[in-house]
Specification:
- By secondary structure, the chain is mostly beta strands.
- The protein has one domain: TolB, C-terminal domain (Neuraminidase, 6 Propeller), CATH 2.120.10.
- The protein is built from 1 helix and 27 strands.
- The strands form 7 sheets. A 5-stranded mixed sheet has the order 3-24-23-22-21, covered by helices on one side.
- It starts with 10 loop residues before the first strand and ends in an 8-residue tail after the last helix.
């Protein structure tokens, strides 16, 4: 049975949405990330955890355990495992998995989503999506083996009791070095949609097809981060290909491009982690990563109009892939917290109350 959601987050793929590094992923564009926008307000990190370079951290999700403690779960692409952190301190709290294709093992885990006590992890090199149950990371099922080619990001939401709808980005590439974007006629497979039923009888999944524009402004060249807004039935999908102008494209849950994308030049580097900051009804913001050096830029946009609402950066955090926006209060972060990967090796945290004050955002988001 799927418990009630405590806090909505993705990363990615979620990425929620999930996010390949410029330095380590073969799909990345040549050269170093560009400098973060100078207009970004500085918000000091609440903490930057002890580095774990061997893991090559990528995507993040959060979970609140039975004792009310917030845990951050990160995918480790190079260590082929999940790494768990304490959400209030950043202290290492354990890990799960290891390299392999058996139950509970991973082949380059990338995207991650948590809903209730379910963890869904995309594995680029398996390729599949694995479903685990918390708190023990017990393997329940896997899906997508028949159609996924190189899954990266994932976002899920509940459509009826015990039933989730999931969207998985599939950023397969051509060429011996896997750097060549597929021809236009294959780009209609960039996002795959699934029905996921989880109850006392187990987990059952149904592939509902794929989508992606093959021409025009909404083409998805290189995809990873994806997040959705159930209230408005729309997705924001990051196209990382800087050769085409990295940006966010808006799609409906039906798979159709809505005709809206963020303007060219919005991102200095690659558009990466995307999350919805839900502040009630139709209020709130979209938050997206601008993967840059020497500091990551975090851009906010109006939930409905996508108009820019300000940008910030940390004092340390750079070259960010995944984020998890945890809007629920924790003992340390009364207004919620934004978690971000710092340079593939560490977990950083930003107090959302400080972000609200720095950018003069809607005070309702602090409730």
């Amino acid at each position: 049975m799927i418990p009630s959601r405590v806090a909505f987050l993705v990363v990615l793929p979620l990425c929620i949405a999930g996010c390949a590094s410029l330095q380590h992923d073969a799909r990345g564009s040549a050269g170093r990330p560009q400098v973060a926008p100078s207009a970004a307000v500085v918000v000091r990190e609440a903490f930057v955890a002890t580095p774990r370079p061997a893991d090559e951290l990528d995507s993040l999700a959060t979970w609140v355990d039975a004792d009310g403690a917030t845990k951050v779960i990160a995918t480790g692409k190079s260590s082929h495992r999940l790494v768990i952190f304490d959400g209030d301190t950043g202290a290492h709290a354990g890990e799960s998995g290891g390299r392999g294709r058996g139950p509970g093992q991973f082949e380059r885990p990338n995207g991650i989503a948590v809903f209730g006590d379910l963890v869904l992890v995309t594995e680029r090199d398996a390729p599949r999506v694995q479903v685990l149950q918390l708190p023990g990371f017990t393997h329940l099922a896997s899906f997508g083996e028949d159609e996924l080619r190189s899954p990266y990001g994932i976002w899920v939401h509940e459509i009826e009791p015990n039933v989730l709808e999931g969207f998985v980005t599939d950023s397969f590439m051509h060429g011996a070095d896997h750097r060549t974007v597929p021809p236009a006629e294959e780009l209609d497979q960039r996002v795959r949609r699934y029905r996921i039923e989880a109850d006392a009888d187990g987990v059952r999944t149904t592939h509902l097809g794929a989508f992606g524009a093959t021409h025009g402004d909404g083409v998805l060249h290189m995809v990873e981060s994806i997040a959705g807004d159930p209230a408005q039935q729309r997705l924001l999908i990051a196209d990382e290909d800087t050769r085409q102008g990295s940006t966010l494209h808006e799609y409906g849950f039906d798979g159709d491009y809505t005709g809206r994308s963020l303007p060219g030049g919005t991102f200095s580097g690659e558009a990466e982690g995307v999350a919805l900051w839900d502040c009630g009804l139709d209020a709130g913001y979209w938050l997206a990563v601008d993967q840059t050096m020497p500091h990551t830029g975090f851009h906010l946009f109006d939930r409905t109009t996508l108009a820019p609402r300000g940008s910030f950066r940390g004092e340390v955090t750079a070259n960010t892939d995944g984020i998890a926006l945890h809007a629920a209060a924790t003992p340390r972060f009364h207004a919620g917290v934004l978690y971000a990967v710092h340079d593939d090796r560490a977990l950083a945290a930003f107090d959302l109350g400080e972000v609200i004050r720095a950018l003069d955002l809607d005070p309702a988001c602090a409730q």
